[in-house]
Each structure stands twice: as C-alpha cells, then as structure tokens.
Amino acid sequence: SQQGEEDPQALSIQEGENATMNCSYKTSINNLQWYRQNSGRGLVHLILIRSNEREKHSGRLRVTLDTSKKSSSLLITASRAADTASYFCATVDQTGANNLFFGTGTRLTVIP
Amino acid sequence: DAGVTQSPTHLIKTRGQQVTLRCSPKSGHDTVSWYQQALGQGPQFIFQYYEEEERQRGNFPDRFSGHQFPNYSSELNVNALLLGDSALYLCASSRGYSHEKLFFGSGTQLSVL
C-alpha cells in the first residue's frame, strides 16, 4: 500500500512548545502534502513540498522531505491551543494508479 | 467566495437502502474528488471527476458511483448500503485535474443502521 504512516499517532504538548510529527511512505512521489483536520470536519491544506525540495516554510510551519528515506516531517513552532487537531500527510503514488493516499494521522493536543 | 459545500451534513439510513450525497466545489475549481473517512482513520480515495467523467478510482466496489454536472457540482451515490459504509464522506475540489492543494467540504456523516 502507498498509504503513508504518521508517527507518533498521538502527541500532547504545552502551549508554546514545538510539535514535530513524521510521515513515511513507500513509493516514488511527485510531492507530499500536509493537511489538518479539526474534530472530524473537513481537511485544510497546510503545505505542499515537491520531490526536488528539501525544506519549506509557511508561517509557523516547517516541512522537510527526505526522498532517500521516503520520509517527511512537519514542525509546528510555538504551538497554540488552536493547533489542536489531527494532521495527515498525503502523497500521490507515481508507480500505481496515481491516486492520492492519506496517512493515518497524528492527533495533536496543545494544552493551554 | 463560497468554499466547498456538501449536503446533507448528517444522514441516517438502513442496510440495503441507497443514498445520494451532494457537493458544490469552490468557485473556480473544476475537479471534484470524494473520500470516505472511517472513525480514527485517514481519508480513503473513492474517485475523482473532471470534465464530467470519472478519471480515477480507488479501491471501492461498483456500489459506489458518481456524477459530475456541467456546473462542476457532483454527486456520490451508494447502493445497497452496508453497515460498514458508515463513515464521514468528504468532497474535495481542485483546479485542473489535480490532487494538489485540495479544498475540502465539511463532510456528510452517514450512519447505516
């Protein structure tokens, strides 16, 4: 399966701390995306990193991509209670049906 | 500028029934994808519509079918409902037959009893 796997499954931190979550995938990709989901509602696109990029920033978000290890990490700096959500990575399988696969998600809880 | 809208928000059906879910994409978007999300899991790709045709399909049975209209809105139909079809159904739109930077609706919570 192409589906990515996020690690850890759950993370609990204090407000102001940094949160790091990781994603591993199995086949070649063109890009990797991160999405956030609040309490079973719709997902919100956070950031997209292409396979020829190693690092990308957007506000308090920093994403890295290591295609040799087939892994990515999402860092949220100076976390806020509003960052409490589930975070998913998503990749398109280049070698198969070219479908978009989401990982299993990391549940982040930021304690005020 | 309205985002992606889905209807209804909640739905309760019994086994064997049929259901139709609706989605209007974000203004300017022409591609619609549907996802099924079971509790505690990531979204699973059902299919994607572009130019009124199903372009890609995930690993879902033929009981799942869809349609895209000339105004880019879309429907998801599920026949012969099973208990296991209970899930949050998410619609996502994008521009130009792409899986990138999807905009999601809030979903339809389907319960099959």
Kindly describe this structure:
The complex is a heterodimer of chains A (112) and B (113). Chain A has strands at 5-7, 10-14, 19-24, 31-37, 43-50, 55-58, 61-66, 71-76, 85-92, 100-102, 106-111. With 112 residues, chain A is mainly β. In chain A, the strands form two sheets. In chain A, strands 2, 4, 5, 9, 10 and 11 form a six-stranded mixed sheet that branches. A five-stranded antiparallel sheet of chain A has the order 1-3-8-7-6, with no helix packed on it. The mean pLDDT of chain A is 91. With 113 residues, chain B is mostly beta strands. Chain B is built from no helices and eleven strands. Chain B has strands at 5-7, 10-13, 19-24, 31-37, 44-50, 53-57, 64-68, 74-78, 87-94, 103-104, 108-112. In chain B, strands 2, 4, 5, 6, 9, 10 and 11 form a seven-stranded mixed sheet that branches. In chain B, strands 1-3-8-7 form a four-stranded antiparallel sheet, with no helix packed on it. In chain B, a hairpin with a 6-residue loop joins β4 and β5 (44-50). The N and C termini of chain B lie far apart (37 Å). The mean pLDDT of chain B is 95. At the A-B interface, β4, β5, β9 and β10 of A face β4, β9 and β10 of B.
Summary of the model, kept short:
The complex is a heterodimer of chains A (112) and B (113). By secondary structure, chain A is mainly β.
